[in-house]
Amino acid sequence: MQSESHEQLHLRRSRISDRWFMAGVYGATGLFVAIVAGLFVELYAGSSSSIRAFGFNFLTSSHWNPVTNQFGALPMIYGTVVSSLIAIVLAGFVGVFGAAYLVEFAPRAVARPLAFLIELLAAVPSVIFGLWGLFILAPVLRANVEPFLQAKFGFLPIFQGFIFGSSLFTAGIVLAIMIVPTVSAITRDVIAAVAREHREASMALGATRWETMARVILPGATTGIFGACVLALGRALGETIATTMVIGNKPAIAASLFQPAYTLASVIANEFTEATSDLYVSALIELGLLLFVVSLAVNGIARVLTWTVLRPAKAR
Amino acid sequence: MKRVNVLGAALSFAALVVAPALAATQLTGAGSSFVNPFFSKAFYEYSAAHTDVTVNYQPIGSGGGIQQFTQRTVDFGASDVPMNADEIKRLPASAVQVPIALGGVAVTYNLPSFIKGGLKLTRETLADIYLGKIAKWNDPRLTKINPGAELPDAPIIVVHRSDGSGTTYIFTDFLSHVSGEWKSKVGTGKSVEWPAPSAVGGKGNDGVAGAVRQTSGSIGYVELAYVHENKMTQAQLQNAAGRFGFCTGGGVAAAAATKLNLTPTDFSIVDTKGETAWPIAGYTWVFMYREYQKPEEKSRAKMVRDVLEWTATSGQRIAGTLDYVPLPESVQEIAKKSFSEIKV
Amino acid sequence: MTTTRSQLPFGRRPLTAHMRWRYGWSAVGVIGSGFCAGLAASLLLLILGYVAIQGVTALNPAFLTHVPRPVGVSGAGVANGIVGTFIVVGIAVALATPVGVFTGIYLALFGRGRFAETVRFLADVLSGIPSIAIGLFAYTLFVQPFHHFSALSASLAFAILMLPLIIRTAEESIARVPTRVREGALALGISTYSSTIHIIVPAARAGIITGLLLAIARVTGETAPLLFTAFGSQFWELNPTNPMAVLALQVFTYAISPYEDWHRQAWAGAFLLIVAVLILNVSARLVLRNRFEA
Predict the structure, then answer these.
(1) For A211-248, what is the HEC assignment?
(2) Interhelix angle for A108-120 vs C205-220, to 10°?
(3) Which of A52, A257, C168, C267 has the least CB density, counted as fewest CB within 10 Å?
């Protein structure tokens, strides 16, 4: 039999390594999907007794009573959504514009240390954020910021009412600080990846630096920035320990941002290690399932927004 | 030659590091975070005297302790509230519950003006404050008990523990005892639905203490050790005998002394008789299984029982140094008797 | 009097009011965004400063080399937690990086249609699951069946937590590799495996490393999943199939206790954590820069 030529050997080896490679690629993706599916299954299985006991009432009731085993999650859904919204609005603003500055406008010597410092925020343990928020931030907000907001904008219902210190507002700010690194770091990469030709063309046309940023670079980076915000929002939704230390842990819905509130993740963090009755544990796991669903919903809405608002804009 | 020396040094160093760990058996326990500081010191001293045993105790919470004990992932569990009938039913085998530590819950507050001798509260007024029925500091019922004190015309911010905890259990147990309305409306539990409209939850003792310290016009409850270590302002509470007093080790011990027939089903020592008794106190319990059959389980269980028995008796002298209250003699006897029921 | 053309600098025309307005807005934009960047950075300094002040008295050589001691006993340390963090996070990185990067490769290069879109969607959804739920998942898979806590189960939980960040950043960076590089790789006639792993992924390396570092930083500070997986320990432990101390867990346990001594150790431990991640970031960036400039 004729021995293989050098080329044939090379081709055969490429085919074999390609097969392994594609197996690895599809395998990894499959493993990832299996993990997420497994998580969902476990959450669903764990909350089955609670779902059976409460049904839809779980989502509409405002009572969380471990003594009588009556559980309702409505105030927690409210608290989770509102606190995360505050966080992503604040962090998105600061993170995106800060990243823009660091990539485009800052002198090299300033940009690197600043970028470092922002990324390091991600390493601070959440219990430290909670303690810092409780002992440093909340008093400042309570004594200065919130009264100021109430004085100037008190006609808005979100700024009315007694000022507690621990509140949705405080929690939103702490969460914002926690997710700024995610927004900033990813946005920096995305902005840096916008082709130089676009920048230079814009400058050549006589646009100012800011105009280049606002009209050329940021629009070009929009989907990436959006992706960064979605990831950061996810982190805010699931944050447990820091939120629970500054949000006041009160299962009630109020119009004012200065009132204490409760989030889905906080309840789990607070009560899971102490819950022993089957129904109690199941209700807590159902909260986890709810968070999964909230995350699904938020991401679904974000996707729809991307398709309807952003993609057509890009195509233009 | 040099390489061999370095290798030899490395090997002997590794042996030194690893050998003690290899020689000692590491026992695991999990549960109550309230009792963690006491356990850490007690087990440290025990291991110093008995070098063949080390104990790895982790404060994952009383409920976590019961869960892990049920799953048999730890050698013993610890909980601020003994297992109830449902929890016992879920166990794979019969268990023994033994009291191992004693602690009190103090009431702390924050008012703009200093009150000489501390704010005084009767048991009913405390219950009504937490029910939300007494909403302002200058309520006539409060001014009557505290003549001469400057109580402002401000809402009472009621602070409670947001995380499930034995401290909340003891506190709500007390409120249920002194107020029928509390008992029917809210009840006793490690986590409850707090009825006061101005209620705020803080996570952990830190959360409650922080909230109270920063919110003028607030009131809250914390562990005795916490109040002492952080020098917080305590309120005086009136006990069943009619005397006002602060939460102290002596008061808690007096409360414990009134209940001599302590059992896992009859364990409440809140609102007890006794001249100097402090009304809000409770035990922490450890549990082991009653029978261990497999031989490797038996030797481990024997070591666990010895450690825990030492902690419940000789180890109690450490309790006072950390602001816990040593178990009364009678309770130590009960503990010894319970440990003897374990067959190893 | 108007200036003549020869008196103006080369190429410049006199500024109209409208131009001045535009330049004004540009300055506002630049300064405003600079303010944002400065705000975010100074927040870290604020928090780090607070942590350092609270914990500096507990930082000493013993703290870095000894194991924990009971309250009030001097010479306590978090050395086992430091080592444990390295082991747990190290194994987590080893688990998450291949799965995450390969999934990113799939999404960027091979994925088409509904399935790929679903995978992307799931990655975003996963980032919103609370870490305690993921810890529970790891507990059911790895602890309950064996009746034994272990550092491995904690690594598993951490790896799952890291996946969304790694996958999305890997996908983004690979997708942004310029087409000419991809086409060049194709033109070489080498196997897909070779062109992807040896050419395209290295070109996307910066972004992937960013995602990885961010994920590591995030996971190093996580406590909730550790409660049911690594369990914690007061002793030296190098065996990943045993319960192990992890620094974030030690910080948490000390922080919620009533004792001043343990509080200070919590702050000192948190300071160590942040410094450790700082060192990791610095060295990773240095390595990256060196290899590019080599």
Answers:
(1) HHHHHHHHHHHHHHHHHHHHHHHHHHHHCCHHHHHHCE
(2) 40
(3) A52
C40–A185: do the CB atoms touch at under 8 Å? no
With contact defined as beta carbons under 8 Å apart, do B167 and B223 qualify?
yes
The C-alpha of B55 sits at a distance from chain C's nearest C-alpha, in angstroms, of 8
Q: Which residues of chain B make contact with C227, given a CB cutoff of 8 A?
A: 58, 60, 64
Residue B288 has pLDDT above 60, yes or no: yes
Domain A52-314 fold is: MetI-like fold (1.10.3720)
CB contact (8 A) between residue B63 and residue A273: yes
By the CB < 8 Å criterion, does B185 face chain A? no
Q: Which residues have C-beta within 8 Å of that of residue A30, sequence separation ≥ 6?
A: none
Domain residue extents for chain C: 78-293
B164 interfaces chain A, CB cutoff of 8 Å: yes
Per-residue confidence band for A30, with pLDDT thresholds at 50, 70 and 90: very high
Taking only the tens place, the pLDDT of each residue in B230-271 is: 888 999 999 888 889 898 888 898 888 888 888 888 888 888
Mark yes or no for CB contact B214/A142 under 8 Å: yes
- For B206, the closest chain C residue by CA position comes to C256
What's the gap between Cα C198 and its chain centre? 25
- Kind of pairing between the strands at B25-31 and B76-79: parallel
Nearest Cα residue in chain B from C259: B229
Calpha distance B24→B43 (Å, rounded): 13
In chain A, which residue's Cα lies nearest the Cα of C29? A210
Nearest CA in chain C to A19: C193
Determine whether the interchain pair A125/C43 forms a contact, defined as Cβ–Cβ distance below 8 Å.
no
Region of residue B323 (phi > 0: left; psi between -120 and 50: alpha; otherwise: beta): left
Interface partners of C (3+ CB pairs, < 8 Å)?
A, B
ipTM computed for the complex: 0.83
Is A92 a residue whose pLDDT tops 60? Answer: yes
pLDDT at site B21:
46
Residue C284: name the closest of C217, C200, C223 by CA: C217
Level-2 CATH architecture, domain C78-293? Orthogonal Bundle (1.10)
Q: Does A249 touch chain B (CB under 8 A)?
A: yes
- CB-CB: which of B60, B189, B215 is closest to A273? B60
Whether residues C36 and A97 touch (CB distance < 8 A) is answered with: yes
Q: What is the pLDDT of residues A31-44, one digit of tens each?
A: 999 999 999 998 88
Residue C190, classified by CB atoms within 10 Å of its CB into exposed (0-12), middle (13-18) or buried (19+), is middle
Question: Average pLDDT, stretch B32-42?
Answer: 87
Beta-carbon separation of A180 and C127 below 8 A? no
E strands, chain C, where? none
**Residue-range domain boundaries for chain A:** 6-46, 52-314
Residues in C touching A29 (Cβ below 8 Å): 102-103, 106-107, 111, 119
Q: Which of A144, A274, A285, A287 to mutate to test the interface with B (most CBs of B within 10 A)?
A: A274
A169-228 pLDDT per residue, tens: 999 999 999 999 989 988 888 888 777 788 888 888 888 888 888 888 888 788 788 888
